[in-house]
Amino acid sequence: MSLLLNGAKTITIAGTEMSCIEIYTGESYTLPFTFTDSGGNAINCTGWTLGTSAKFYTANIDYSTLVTDVVTVGNLTLNSPQPSTGAGTYSANLTAVFTTAASGIGYIYIPADLTGGTGSPNATPIIALANSGANSTLVIVTMSVTRTDVLSGLVDVNREPIGMIVRYQ
């Protein structure tokens, strides 16, 4: 099973390849997706359950490379404490739903307050500088997929990471 996130680029962090979207602080995004098999055919996702969560990192992001389609992300530091809307995770305002489960089609909604200083007991970061390479935020949004395996009848849980480079606009 693969997740195709429309408009995404590919990013590799610590050897893990993931979809990556560059977003601007204060803007919300609806990101369409499709689940497909290895042949590119839509997967019937009827009965699957989706969930979302996010982890926040401070990163050094360099846009000055001579290669126009490369962004260098370095010095990742997991923020501590992590932003929380309760239960130790930031997830209350993230949404992942199927619009047509039989065709594996849905969307993830990223709220405008992803870095707006919201959340309790720990607020999300506020990006107050144009990204010159320092003071950038990388948010790894994870969409969890829970489904019952058709062969074994056991419940499978899969997590799909999506990197969000958040920039000041």
General description of the model:
The protein is mainly β and 169 residues long. The protein has a single domain (2-167), classed as Immunoglobulins (Immunoglobulin-like), CATH 2.60.40.10. 0% of the residues lie in helices and 50% in strands. The strands form 2 sheets. Strands 2-3-10-9-5-6 form a 6-stranded mixed β-sheet, with no helix packed on it. The termini are far apart.
Search tags:
50% strand; four-stranded antiparallel sheet; globular; single chain; Immunoglobulin-like; 169 residues; mainly beta
Number of extended strands: 10
What form results from the Cα inertia axes?
globular
Nearest-angstrom radius of gyration?
17 Å
Level of helix content?
under 10%
Number of domains: 1
CATH homology superfamily name: Immunoglobulins
Fraction in beta strands: over 45%
Describe the structure concisely.
The chain is mainly beta and 169 residues long.
Question: Which helices and strands appear, and what pairs or packs with what?
Answer:
Layout: E1 2-5, E2 9-13, E3 16-24, E4 29-36, E5 49-62, E6 72-78, E7 95-100, E8 105-110, E9 136-148, E10 155-167
Parallel strand pairs: 3-10
Antiparallel strand pairs: 1-4, 2-3, 4-8, 5-6, 5-9, 7-8, 9-10
